[in-house]
From TrEMBL:
PROSITE patterns: HTH_LUXR_1, HTH_LUXR_2. PANTHER family: HTH-TYPE TRANSCRIPTIONAL REGULATOR RV0890C-RELATED, REGULATOR-RELATED. Residues 810-875 form the HTH luxR-type domain. It comes from Streptosporangium brasiliense. It holds the Pfam family HTH_77. This is ATPase/DNA-binding CsgD family transcriptional regulator. It comes from the Bacteria.
C-alpha cells in the first residue's frame, strides 16, 4: 500500500475480502512506522458514526460536534500508518466521505477498505477479490472438515468429493465453511449432491460470526437489501442467464415490463459496482456473469416474484433471435459463427432445454435445429444427439418442414457422434419429408449424407447421388452444401482410384469450404486430397497437404475432426516409411483416448494403428485393431469393416499364420459389389491371394500378381506398382529365377528412393523362410539387383511384364479374357457407350478403348455388334 492512496477490496459476501484484509493488516503492521489499525463497521448502523469508529480504533479523542470529520483529519495530519476499514457497503456514502477527507489532508496515511461496492472517491483503486484457486479452496474446506469430523476428511472419496463441493460453491470461503459444517452428518459426496439448492443446506454458521455470515442466505439477503428498486428487478431477472451474457440481452428484459432499457443498463452498472455481477470487458463485446451461489439466490427471488416462466420464455426468444441473426454466417464464415455461438452456448443450451419442456415445443425445436453444426463440429455430439432426438420425439406425430429440419439436423450430428446406418436412415427420412411437405431447403443439410449412405450400394450410385445434390445446391444458391457435395464427389474418385478427377474436385471444394471457414469438411477434403496425391506418387506434397489438414482441424478442438486429420498424416508417414513420425502424429489421439471411458469415432484410426503394428511386425496386434473398427456394431463381422480395413485385416491374418481366415476375408472382399469399383482394393486382394499360395502354387500366384500389376498400371496406382515389384521379386526368388528376382528387387529399391519412401531390407519377407534365405546369397542375385537399381519405375514395370514367362491363360477365346475385360464385354453387350463404361468401371475412356481392342483380337470379332452376338451365344451355351 502507498501512502496517500486507497485500495478497495470488492466482491460478493463470503468471497474472502475480510480474510484477505486481515492478512494484509498483519503484514503491514511491521512495514509502517506506526503499524496498521483495524476499523470494523460491521455492526455500525448509523453512517454519521463512521468517523468516531475510526477515531476509537486510532485512539484519537474527538470533540462532541455534529461533524467530527475535520477534528479527525486534524488529529491524523502528521501520522504515518495503514488503516483497514472493513465492511463499508451498508454505510458506503459516509465511509467514502470520511476516507476521502483523511486522504486529502493526511499524505502519509493509506487506507485499505473492504466493501461489496466501490467507494467511488478520487484516486481509488479497486481490486475485485477473485474466488480462491482450487488448491487453497481444498485446503480451507478440508481443514474445516477435519476440525469437526476428522474421519470424513480421510476416506478415499474425500478429495474428489471436496473438489466437487469447491467447484459447485465457486470456491467462496464462507460457502465452503458452511458446507464443511455438514461433514459430521453427510458424506462429502452427499454434500456435493445436495448443493443444487445451496441456500437450503448452507446455514448454521459459527455463533460467533456476524449474523449476516451465519448463513449463506443471510449474506445474500444483506447484499440484496442494499439494492435500489430497479437493481432488485434486474437482479432477479438476469438469474435466467447462464454465465456469459451481454448488455444487449439485458436490455431485452425490458419486454417483461418495469424498467426500460436505459434504466436496466444503469441497474447493470449498479450490480457490477455492488459485486453481484462480474464484468469481463477484455473482448470486443463485454460479457457478464453471476457466481453460482449469487445466481441461485436471484432465481429464488425470480420465482418468488412469479416471473420465472415469463423470464425463461423471453430468454428462449432472445437466443432464438440470436441464432436467426447468426444463420447467414453458416454459409459465409463458419469460424465466426462458431465463435459467436460458442460464447452464448451455455445460455442457448438452457433455452433449448426450457423450450423442449413447454406445451408447445416449436421454439425449442427450432433452436435445437439451429445448433446442429456446432454439435457436429465441436465434440458436443452426444449432447446434440440427446437434444435433437428429444426434439424429433416432440414432433413425431407431424409431417412438417420443421420436423424435416429437425431430422436433417439429427442426421448431421449422428454422422460424427455415432457412426453407423442410423445417420443415413434419418437423413433419408428428412429428405423424403422435406420433399413431401414442399420444403426442399428443410432437408438440404441431409442430402450429402444421403449420398454418403449410397456407398453401401456402390460407388456409381453414390457418385450419381452426389452429383445431383451438388447441382440442386448450386441451383438453390447454397454454396456450402454444393462444396460439401463436391468434396464427397472427390472422395468417391479417391475410392475409385481416379486420382486426376479426385484432385480436380477436391482442390475446388477445399477452396470453397475454407473460404467459408468450414474447417470440419474442409479438413476432411484436405485429407482426401493428401491421400490422392500420395497414392499417385506425390508423397512430399501429400505430407504437406496432410499437415495442412491437421492445422485446419485443430481450432475446432474436437477429437473427431483433429483425430481424423492426424490419421491421414500418420498413414502418409507410414507409406513413406517414416514410422516414428507416424506414431508421433497419432500420439495426441492415443493419449486422449487412453484417458476417455468412451472411445470416440475417428475416421480410419483403428486401421492406421493396425498398419503401424504391421510395420513393426506385430500382426496379431494389427488383427485386434482391425476388429476394433467394428465396435459400433453389436455383432461385427468383416462386412461391417471398411474395404480398406478388410484388406489390412487379411494381411495381418496371413502374417500371423492364420491363412484360412485370411482367405475367407479376401474371398468375401473380392465378392463384394463395391470392391469391383475399387481398383486399389482389387489389386491388393489379388496380391494377398497370391501370397497365400506362394509355397503351393507358384504359377497361379504368378498370374494373380501380374493381374494385380495390370490393374495398377491401368489406374496409375504408383505405390501399388512398387508393391507389385516386391511381390514378384519374392515369388521369382521362390521359383528359383534369381536374375528376375534381383532385378525387380533392385528396381523396387530405386522406386522407393525416387518416391521418397524409406528403404526396406532386400526381400524382407524372405528372411523368415530358411530356403529363401539361402537363395539370397546367390552371386547372380546381387548382380541383378544392381541392374535393377539402374531402372526407373516405368522401365521396371515393363521389365516385370516382359519377364512374366509362360501363361496358363490361352491366347484367344473366352477363357483368355481377364476379369476386367469380361466386365467390359458385359457392359458393351448391354449397349453402354465407352464413356458410360468408363464411368461405371471408374477407368479412363482410353483404357476402355484398349480393353475393347484386346477383346476384339481375342474373340476374333470386328465390332460391337459382333461382340454382342458372340456374348449372347456364349451366355446361352453356358446356361
Amino acid at each position: 500500500m502507498t501512502a496517500g492512496r486507497v485500495l478497495t477490496l470488492t466482491g460478493p459476501g463470503g468471497c474472502g475480502k475480510t480474510r484477505l484484509a486481515i492478512r494484509v493488516c498483519r503484514l503491514a503492521a511491521e512495514a509502517w512506522p506506526e503499524g496498521a489499525f483495524w476499523v470494523d463497521l460491521e455492526e455500525e448502523t448509523d453512517g454519521s458514526h463512521v468517523a468516531r469508529r475510526m477515531a476509537a480504533a486510532l485512539d484519537v479523542l474527538l470533540p462532541a460536534e455534529p461533524d467530527p470529520v475535520p477534528a479527525l483529519v486534524s488529529a491524523l495530519r502528521d501520522r504515518e500508518f495503514l488503516v483497514v476499514v472493513d465492511n463499508c457497503e451498508h454505510v458506503l456514502d459516509d465511509a467514502a466521505r470520511v476516507i476521502a477527507a483523511v486522504l486529502s489532508k493526511c499524505p502519509r496515511v493509506a487506507v485499505l477498505a473492504t466493501s461489496r461496492s466501490r467507494l467511488g472517491i478520487a484516486g481509488e483503486r479497486v481490486w475485485p477479490v477473485p474466488p480462491m484457486d482450487l488448491a487453497d479452496a481444498l485446503e480451507l474446506f478440508l481443514e474445516r472438515v477435519r476440525a469437526g469430523a476428522p474421519d470424513a476428511a480421510s476416506g478415499a472419496e474425500a478429495r474428489p468429493g471436496a473438489r466437487r463441493i469447491c467447484d459447485r460453491l465457486d470456491r467462496l470461503p464462507l460457502a465452503l465453511e458452511l458446507a464443511a459444517g455438514w461433514a459430521g452428518v453427510l458424506s462429502l459426496a452427499q454434500i456435493a449432491d445436495s448443493l443444487s439448492a445451496p441456500f437450503a443446506l448452507l446455514d448454521g454458521g459459527a455463533r460467533t460470526a456476524p449474523f449476516r455470515q451465519r448463513t449463506l442466505q443471510g449474506s445474500m439477503s444483506w447484499s440484496h437489501d442494499l439494492l435500489d428498486d430497479d437493481e432488485r428487478v434486474l437482479f432477479r431477472r438476469i438469474g435466467v442467464f447462464e454465465p456469459g451474457f451481454t448488455a444487449d440481452a439485458v436490455t431485452r428484459l425490458a419486454a417483461l415490463g418495469g424498467p426500460g432499457p436505459e434504466r436496466l443498463l444503469k441497474g447493470l452498472r449498479g450490480l457490477i459496482d455492488k459485486s453481484l455481477v462480474v464484468a469481463d470487458t477484455t473482448g470486443a463485446v463485454a460479457g457478464y456473469r453471476m457466481l453460482g451461489v449469487v445466481r441461485a439466490y436471484a432465481l429464488a427471488r425470480l420465482e418468488e416474484a412469479q416471473e420465472d416462466a415469463a423470464a425463461r420464455d423471453l430468454h428462449l426468444d432472445i437466443h432464438l433471435s440470436l441464432l436467426e441473426r447468426l444463420a447467414p454466417l453458416l454459409g459465409t464464415d463458419k469460424d465466426a459463427w462458431r465463435t459467436r455461438l460458442g460464447a452464448a452456448y451455455p445460455n442457448v443450451h438452457a433455452a433449448i432445454e426450457w423450450g423442449l419442456s413447454r406445451a408447445d415445443p416449436a421454439r425449442g425445436r427450432r433452436l435445437a435445429t439451429a445448433c446442429a453444426w456446432l454439435w457436429h463440429l465441436e465434440g458436443r455430439g452426444v449432447e446434440g444427439v440427446r437434444l435433437l432426438r428429444r426434439a424429433a420425439a416432440r414432433g413425431a406425430d407431424e409431417r412438417s418442414p420443421l420436423q424435416a429440419e429437425v431430422l436433417a439436423a439429427l442426421a448431421l450430428v449422428l454422422n460424427t457422434a455415432e457412426p453407423g446406418v442410423e445417420a443415413f436412415e434419418v437423413a433419408r427420412a428428412a429428405q423424403d419429408m422435406a420433399a413431401e411437405t414442399g420444403a426442399p431447403a428443410a432437408g438440404r443439410p441431409a442430402r450429402p449424407l444421403v449420398a454418403i449412405g449410397r456407398l453401401t450400394v456402390g460407388l456409381t450410385e453414390a457418385l450419381e447421388e452426389a452429383r445431383t445434390v451438388r447441382e440442386e445446391a448450386v441451383q438453390a444458391g447454397d454454396g456450402s452444401i454444393a462444396d460439401c457435395a463436391e468434396a464427397f464427389i472427390g472422395l468417391i474418385h479417391v475410392l475409385a482410384d481416379d486420382y486426376r478427377q479426385a484432385i480436380e474436385c477436391l482442390e475446388h471444394a477445399v477452396e470453397g469450404l475454407l473460404g467459408r471457414g468450414d474447417r470440419g469438411v474442409g479438413s476432411f477434403a484436405l485429407g482426401w486430397l493428401a491421400l490422392a496425391a500420395a497414392r499417385s506418387g506425390a508423397l512430399q506434397r501429400a505430407g504437406e497437404l496432410a499437415q495442412r489438414a491437421v492445422a485446419t482441424a485443430e481450432p475446432l478442438r474436437d477429437l473427431h475432426w483433429t483425430g481424423s486429420a492426424r490419421v491421414v498424416l500418420a498413414e502418409i508417414r507410414i507409406l513413406q516409411g517414416r514410422l516414428d513420425e507416424a506414431a508421433a502424429a497419432l500420439a495426441p489421439i492415443d493419449r486422449l483416448v487412453d484417458g476417455s471411458g468412451r472411445l470416440p469415432f475417428i475416421t480410419g484410426w483403428e486401421r492406421c494403428k493396425a498398419m503401424l503394428a504391421l510395420e513393426h511386425d506385430r500382426p496379431r496386434e494389427a488383427v485386434e485393431w482391425c476388429w476394433r473398427e467394428g465396435r459400433w456394431q453389436e455383432e461385427p463381422t468383416e462386412g461391417w469393416l471398411a474395404p480398406e480395413t478388410q484388406l489390412v485385416l487379411a494381411v495381418a491374418l496371413r502374417r500371423s499364420g492364420d491363412h484360412s481366415a485370411a482367405a475367407r476375408v479376401l474371398n468375401a472382399l473380392s465378392d463384394a459389389p463395391v470392391t469391383t469399383q475399387m481398383p486399389r482394393i482389387r489389386a491388393g486382394v489379388l496380391d494377398e491371394l497370391a501370397l497365400l499360395i506362394h509355397a503351393t502354387d507358384t504359377e497361379r500366384a504368378l498370374n494373380l500378381h501380374h493381374e494385380a500389376l495390370r490393374i495398377r498400371i491401368d489406374h496409375d496406382l504408383v505405390l501399388g506398382r512398387v508393391a507389385s515389384l516386391e511381390s514378384l521379386a519374392l515369388l521369382n526368388l521362390r521359383r528359383g529365377v534369381a536374375k528376375t528376382a534381383g532385378v525387380l528387387a533392385g528396381a523396387a529399391e530405386r522406386a522407393r528412393s525416387d518416391l521418397g519412401i524409406a528403404p526396406r531390407p532386400l526381400l524382407r519377407a524372405a528372411v523368415a523362410d530358411e530356403e529363401l534365405r539361402a537363395r539370397l546369397q546367390e552371386p547372380a542375385l546381387h548382380g541383378a539387383v544392381e541392374h535393377g537399381r539402374a531402372m526407373d519405375l516405368p522401365a521396371a514395370v515393363g521389365y516385370a511384364t516382359r519377364a512374366r514367362g509362360p501363361r496358363r491363360r490361352p491366347e484367344s477365346g473366352w477363357e483368355s479374357l481377364t476379369p476386367a475385360e469380361r466386365s467390359v464385354v458385359e457392359l458393351a453387350a448391354e449397349g453402354l457407350s465407352n464413356p458410360e463404361i468408363a464411368t461405371r468401371l471408374f477407368v479412363s475412356r482410353g483404357t476402355v478403348k484398349t480393353h475393347l481392342a484386346h477383346i476384339y483380337a481375342k474373340l476374333q470379332v470386328a465390332n460391337r455388334t459382333e461382340l454382342a452376338r458372340a456374348a449372347a451365344v456364349h451366355l446361352n451355351r453356358h446356361n
